[in-house]
């Protein structure tokens, strides 16, 4: 297949389970695994301590989450990349899939039952708007 398998992470255990499923799929398909984290605001905070000054942003924090997970999933058989995308999680995944011409988006099934199913979830948003195939991984229970 080659191409790109895209997965969104937020640091939660369920997102980690989706990322593990994405890794298995990307490896089997000889595809690149792209790990992304969404962020909704452009908030920037400047922290100063003596002569030192740090600029912290939501984008940087989101990218750090994606970078960490991508690094943990990397292997000799798998090319990984990562990034941060502005927007609500589902919309950000769709936008990134369009940008990188992804062949597959992997999402978890968290909040696909009960009230979350009616009000919407990341998986629901992605499934209805994705420009490519969507794989919904069972993430509500440990494997």
UniProtKB/TrEMBL annotation:
Organism superkingdom: Bacteria
Matches recorded under InterPro entries: Rossmann-like_a/b/a_fold, Universal_stress_UspA, UspA
CDD domains hit by this protein: USP-like (cd00293)
Residues in UspA domain copies: 3-138
Pfam families: Usp
Family: Belongs to the universal stress protein A family.
Protein name: Nucleotide-binding universal stress protein, UspA family
UniProt organism field: Arthrobacter cupressi
